[in-house]
Amino acid sequence: VGLGTEGPVQRGWGLWLTSVLAVAIAAVFVGARLLQRLVKRSGLGTDDYMIIAALIFSGLLSLTECQAVVYGYGRRWRTLEADTRMIARKWFYGANIVYKVVLMFNKISIASLYYRIFAVSSNSFRVACHVMNAWIVASSLAFIIATIFQCTPISAFWDRSIPGFRCFKNELWWISYATIQISTDFALLLLPIPKIVKLSMGRAEKLGICLIFGTGAFVTFASIYRATTIAASASDPDPTWGPIPATIWSVIEANAGIVCACLPMLRGPFVGLFGPFFGRSRKATTKPNRSYHLTWRSDKPHESADVSNRIRGADDAMIDAERDSEEGFVT
């Protein structure tokens, strides 16, 4: 996707560059996640399929944003030809829809991962995961449909010359969606913590696991920071210039979510870099007879065994024996 020859890019170059780099980084992490599944022979689960869907739509998001920039998004409205204005706004309209689809699949992937790892421990946690996914789907679809029909007629989004058109007020509309997303992000951050606390492992190792799962806090930060840019973006009367800061942070938020959703499956590199803080010491790799299991504190032995199969750390020499484990995120 090139920057085109429509004129000076000006403010849009930052969005173009962010869109290209962010999805490329996200693709690397998803690829590493799928490679980890292949190496551990653990098979793909719902969480994996959802993150693949999120990446596909993130690629589509980058395409729509870049094309919007090519046709004038990021330049002053008054400097654009009438036809170019409408094309830029059409691409931006598509980006608005795709952005919400990316976040939906990303959040479903995270909740599904929690279910895959921890749901064996209690019925209440299974219910919590189902409720979370139901909320994510329902709220996301509601906003996606509302985004499609935010103007009456729909074409009024890119053609404001249509007589008698009506559209949502940008600031209220954007802030309401941001509030829902931030609340959901906080809920996803907190959901696995009680389960991690109950794992039979050292305090430092628990903290390390929490930090890996807690990388999603950056996504929450991106959502919050994006919300702070909304007021200025929405109040700017220039529809191709004003929204750029909020749009850049939307791209960052969407792709950072994909990256953070992949990190729990890539715990191995964290262990290699930080040693026992993330669950296994480097010395242990030289002792083939030692393996390290994270077990669940439960009065029911079969629950401890099942959770251990899902959350397992092993010495390098024991990897082949551990490949039957359903989860490979603590290798």
From TrEMBL:
<feature type="transmembrane region" description="Helical">
    <location>
        <begin position="127"/>
        <end position="149"/>
    </location>
</feature>
<feature type="transmembrane region" description="Helical">
    <location>
        <begin position="172"/>
        <end position="194"/>
    </location>
</feature>
<feature type="transmembrane region" description="Helical">
    <location>
        <begin position="48"/>
        <end position="71"/>
    </location>
</feature>
<dbReference type="GO" id="GO:0016020">
    <property type="term" value="C:membrane"/>
</dbReference>
<comment type="similarity">
    <text>Belongs to the SAT4 family.</text>
</comment>
<dbReference type="InterPro" id="IPR049326">
    <property type="entry name" value="Rhodopsin_dom_fungi"/>
</dbReference>
<feature type="domain" description="Rhodopsin">
    <location>
        <begin position="32"/>
        <end position="270"/>
    </location>
</feature>
<feature type="compositionally biased region" description="Acidic residues">
    <location>
        <begin position="317"/>
        <end position="331"/>
    </location>
</feature>
<dbReference type="InterPro" id="IPR052337">
    <property type="entry name" value="SAT4-like"/>
</dbReference>
<keyword id="KW-0472">Membrane</keyword>
<dbReference type="Pfam" id="PF20684">
    <property type="entry name" value="Fung_rhodopsin"/>
</dbReference>
<feature type="region of interest" description="Disordered">
    <location>
        <begin position="302"/>
        <end position="331"/>
    </location>
</feature>
<keyword id="KW-0812">Transmembrane</keyword>
<feature type="transmembrane region" description="Helical">
    <location>
        <begin position="13"/>
        <end position="36"/>
    </location>
</feature>
<feature type="transmembrane region" description="Helical">
    <location>
        <begin position="206"/>
        <end position="226"/>
    </location>
</feature>
<protein>
    <recommendedName>
        <fullName>Rhodopsin domain-containing protein</fullName>
    </recommendedName>
</protein>
<keyword id="KW-1133">Transmembrane helix</keyword>
